[in-house]
Design brief:
This protein has 10 helices and 14 strands. It is an alpha/beta fold. The longest helix is centred in the first third of the chain and has 21 residues. The chain has 2 domains: 199 residues, NAD(P)-binding Rossmann-like Domain (Rossmann fold, 3-Layer(aba) Sandwich), CATH 3.40.50.720; 99 residues, Alpha-Beta Complex (UDP-galactose 4-epimerase, domain 1), CATH 3.90.25.10. The radius of gyration is 19 Å and the shape is globular.
Length: 327
């Protein structure tokens, strides 16, 4: 079976992508330094422990496994941290991606699926964001991802490296079959933090900001189920392997929810109250980010079947009650 090098393959999204790849008949090779990932999540193909900042380890993985394509998930992704230490994000995200891209060219790997982000758009007054929306990042995380998009474009022109770029929104949920779930070190995402508070594993959920220009003063975000996101990446891979043109796709449910609405939905799913404390705004947070994903639906045939708020919270709640990989 064709091998796909999946950077960050031991992480939350990368491990779900590996499962989707294996189910689609590919062999995923999880490349990860385990700084935030979990070796226990590598279940669907070989594991190569390496670091994108070490070009020699990237080349070694390419030489050993000879992939036909790369899926690139590995990155630093904390908006607040990127505002405090932008140099770290430029060094790791852009430097690591450049090592990977140059290694692809050196080893004749011509297909690249890139995990980008809606953070490249910045804060644009709550407009629905699609592939034609101007990119105006307001934090170093978004800027670093936009830079990688530009690098891929330049390497496509110079070396024929073909690419599919996914700009996706807030990823949530867990594997519907219960094999994988979300657990970051540290955890920063709204839904798992909320469920930890519900389960008594943290005192309360902090809501950052209540004075945004939204319907209840809290941030609006578009949530997409991790299983749907993984399936889109498989469709993007097939798009490239079929010889089709370079493409950018936005991925989201197309519906925005405020933080307070997510809390209300959690109460309905878990039948438990969410302890909440109010905090100040965080630097770099946009007021509203909502996806226009029609291109992915029409061209890729993508169907976000699991991306209802109730299922995303329900799957995450089921996972949160399992032992998981916690230590």
């Amino acid at each position: 079976m064709a091998r796909i090098l999946v950077t960050g393959g031991a992480g939350y999204i990368g491990s779900h992508a590996c499962k989707a790849l294996a189910r689609a008949g590919f062999t995923p090779v999880a490349f990860d330094n385990l700084s935030t990932g979990w070796e226990e999540a590598v279940k669907y193909g070989p594991f190569f422990r390496g670091d994108l900042m070490d070009r020699a380890s990237v080349d070694a993985a390419m030489a050993e496994h000879r992939p036909v394509a790369v899926m690139h998930f590995a990155a630093l992704s904390l908006v607040g941290e990127s505002m405090k230490d932008p140099g770290l994000y430029w060094r790791v995200n852009v430097g690591g991606a450049l090592n990977l891209i140059e290694s692809c060219v050196a080893h004749g790997v011509g297909n690249f699926v890139f995990s980008s982000t809606c953070a490249t758009y910045g804060d644009q007054d709550g407009v629905v964001l699609d592939e034609d929306t101007p990119q105006r990042p307001i934090n170093a995380y978004g800027s670093s991802k936009r830079a990688i998009e530009d690098i891929l474009k330049d390497f496509g022109a110079a070396h024929g490296l073909r690419r599919v770029i996914f700009r996706y929104f807030n990823v949530a949920g867990a594997d519907p079959e219960g094999e994988l779930g979300e657990q970051h070190r540290p955890e920063t995402h709204l839904i798992p933090l909320m469920l930890e508070a519900v389960a008594g594993r943290r005192p309360a959920l902090t809501v950052f900001g209540d004075d945004y220009p939204t319907r209840d003063g809290t941030c609006v975000r578009d949530y997409v189920h991790v299983a749907d996101l993984a399936e889109a990446h498989v469709l993007g891979l097939r798009w490239l392997l079929d010889g089709r043109e370079d493409r950018v796709f936005c991925l989201g449910s197309g519906t925005g929810f405020t933080v307070r609405e997510v809390i209300d939905a959690s109460r309905a799913v878990t039948n438990r109250e969410v302890p909440v404390v109010q905090g100040a705004r965080r630097a770099g947070d946009a007021a509203a980010l909502v996806s226009g994903s029609r291109r992915a639906v029409e061209e890729l045939g993508w169907e976000p079947r699991h991306s209802t708020l109730r299922q995303m919270i329900g799957d995450a709640w089921s996972w949160a009650q399992k032992p998981g990989f916690r230590r």
